[in-house]
Amino acid sequence: MVGQTNLLDKLKELARNLWWCWQANAIDLFRELDPILWREVDHNPVEFLQRLPADQLEKRAAEMALDSRIDSAFRRLSEYLKDADSWGSIHATILRARPVAYFSAEFGLHESLPIYSGGLGVLAGDHLKSASDLGIPLIGVGLLYNQGYFRQSLDANGWQQESYLNTDVEKLPIEPAVAADGSPLRVAVETTNGTLHAKVWRVEVGRTTLLLLDANVPENNESDRQLTARLYGGDARTRIRQELLLGVGGVRAIRAFGIRPSVLHLNEGHSAFAVLEKIRELMEETGLPFGEVLRDVAQMTVFTTHTPVAAGHDRFPPQLVEEHLGRIREALNLSYDDFMGLGRVYPHDLNELFTMTVLALKLSRYANGVSALHGVVSRRMWHPLYANLPEENVPIGHITNGVHVQTWIAPQVARLFNRHLGIDWAKRQRYAETWTAIDKVDDGELNETQQILKARLIHFVRSRLAAQAKKRGEPDATVERFANVLDQNTLTIGFARRFATYKRAGLVLQDIDRMVDIIRNAEKPIQFVFAGKAHPEDRMGKELIQYIVKNAWDSRFRNNIVFVEDYDMNVARHLVQGVDVWLNNPRRPQEASGTSGEKAVLNGALNFSILDGWWAEAYDGANGFAIGHGTTHASIQVQDERDHASLLEVLTTKVVPTFYDRDAEGLPRKWLAMQKHAFRTLAWKFNADRMVMDYVKRSYLPAAGGVACL
Question: Per-residue DSSP letters for 394-413?
Fold first, then answer.
């Protein structure tokens, strides 16, 4: 029994560091101990081990000969944490003593830690993981949402319903953070009408640490205890208090944790108050005036904007800002008007709201969009802030987003890469030459791998749809039908993202009568898998979901269009790994990046996209398919009509014929050649390792006082 206790201790330690979630062998360990329980707990190893009886652990470990594998995984984690031979140990040594502090309102690390809503959070999670893999000294700062983002279900009319579940912190891979003096880490943020308090939790993400602030503490009144209950919930007052806690409270948490960062990285404008707190802290420390300290703090601040849509930037009325930042304003020795001017494009326009993005741009010296096109859009959007400069000289550059490869790649594809690219390909993923060997992969082997992944997706979708139908109280015949939707040999197109209207989820179904003939073609049919959530207050987004769902339930489409409820990282993982084509048709140029398509590429799916975001700089005519020609029209209606026409033309004349063009062996040779070309031209460039290295070279090192390695 002593041996099994030791195994349990090792499994618990594995579960407490999220390193396991991008290690296929570690994931397999938990799954093989009890596959049914693993699904029941939504792949949460902490809760899994709490519910797994000790005798069952002992029995399964013996039956499956897991002892040595558990020892191996535990040893690999220990070696990973101690490994000093990393890219960062050579190229980012200046950050070792004073690391990067990375602020984000959400972090998407794994579905078992539900403190994310979508792309922004998953990008932040991928950033932390790659910083860990590269050995970049970095600490994340966020909020612990007790209810997370909402859980989505559909009613009998296909209308989105939201529900919120309280998360039991005892079942999360977190532990209370401890201050430098060994006491429990707490922070307090003063406002003009009271003080906000927060407990700080600690999450280990490989070699990086994430601090999460939690307002659900006895020192707060009931209203303030709910501040960190929901992600992106509540009114402007709730939002500004959340952002005050994230920014000001976050800087104070880092200080109490015993870290003096050399770089502040603001992932979107939500955390811009952090810079004000850092200025206040250094003014108190040095005795220097605001202007001089601002110069130094701005030099150490990096700001990434993700929002090319004007309505997506947080704006607050002056009275709300003064109520919450009045104490800090006084500590900064700024007048009311001067302070409000920091958040305005036109400082003396009393009718202009206080904008967090404006504050972040004014208080940082390194600003970037998240794709080349988004950089152009951002310079145009914020040119009035720099009216004395030509638009092209506005100091907002770009670092194109990438995705964490080991998180998103299917194990079957990883094994294929191990065989043909070399066992250490993941460490060399950022080099173009790593991917040249992909051409030598046998077409049959690649095709077989894709078929395995598609079968896995179909099984997942059928199970989810049948469960959804049961939950709605559908008849047994309907449940049975859902359990048999989709076909292994049919071209499968995936579309999954936030259902904001500019992303145009319904564009492909705009001419529904024509789509009947295209989708139900007897020789070359198509099937669509949709998923995604609309914000609870976004009625138009909900109507888009309902439109798609009603078509999915239409007898003409019911086996060829499906909508999977409750989109999260688990659903996303199955979709990007199993579809043949990834569809993305935002209204250009409103997609900042669109990283879901990058995840699909890693698993062999071909992108079929508007030339926006990352695809505008990735598409070369042979590594996927483009909708339109990269132009826009002044009329939204005209643009939508043109894009719809182009989408159908490319779908019917290029995508479908290429997929169904089979040789005597039944292999789609042209399609497989495009897949290989996509791997070779895209995988090395659009990964998070390359992205984080770009941040180090272009932003972190110069911000920390090191040498920029451009």
Answer: SS-EE----B-HHHHS-HHH
Residue the block writes with tokens 């953070």: 177
Residues 313 and 269: their CA atoms lie apart, in Å, by 8
Beta-bridged to residue 496, according to DSSP, are: 531
**What secondary structure, in 3-state letters, does 81-144 show?**
HHCCCCHHHHHCHHHCCCCEEEEECCCCCCCCCCCCCCHHHHHHHHHHHHHHHHCCCEEEEEEC
Say whether 524 sits in a helix, a strand or coil. coil
Over residues 87-116, the mean pLDDT reads 95
3-state helix/strand/coil string of 179-244: CCCCCECEEEEEECCEEEEEEEEEEEECCEEEEEEECCCCCCCHHHHCCCCECCCCCHHHHHHHHH
**pLDDT bracket for residue 709 (50, 70, 90):** very low
Beta strands at 160-163 and 151-154: parallel, antiparallel or unpaired: antiparallel
Residue 347 is given by DSSP the state T
Mean pLDDT of the chain: 95
The answer on pLDDT for 575 being more than 80 is yes
Contact indicator for 142, 107 with CB cutoff of 8 Å: yes
Closest CA to 597 of 610, 612, 582, 581: 582
pLDDT tens digit sequence for 174-232: 999 999 889 999 999 999 999 999 999 999 999 999 999 999 999 999 999 999 999 98
* Dihedral of alpha carbons 254, 256, 259, 264, sign: positive
Residues of the chain by 3-state class (helix, strand, coil), percent to 5: 50, 15, 35
> Is the model's pLDDT at 303 over the cut of 90?
yes
Q: Which amino acid is at 319?
A: Q
Q: Distance (Å, rounded) from C-alpha 173 to C-alpha 176?
A: 11
Measured CA angle at 579 (ends 573, 583), to 5 deg: 95
Instruction: State how far the Cα of 305 lies from the Cα of 303, in Å rounded to an integer.
Output: 6
- Please give the biggest Cα pair distance in the chain: 80
Per-residue tokens: 332: 């900064």
**Cβ count within 10 A of residue 706:** 18
Domains along the sequence of the chain with CATH: 2-82 (no CATH), 103-401 (3.40.50.2000), 419-453+485-684 (3.40.50.2000)
Cβ–Cβ under 8 Å, residues 281 and 210: no
Cα 682 to Cα 686: distance, rounded to the nearest angstrom? 6
CB-based burial label for 563 (10 Å; 0-12, 13-18, 19+): buried
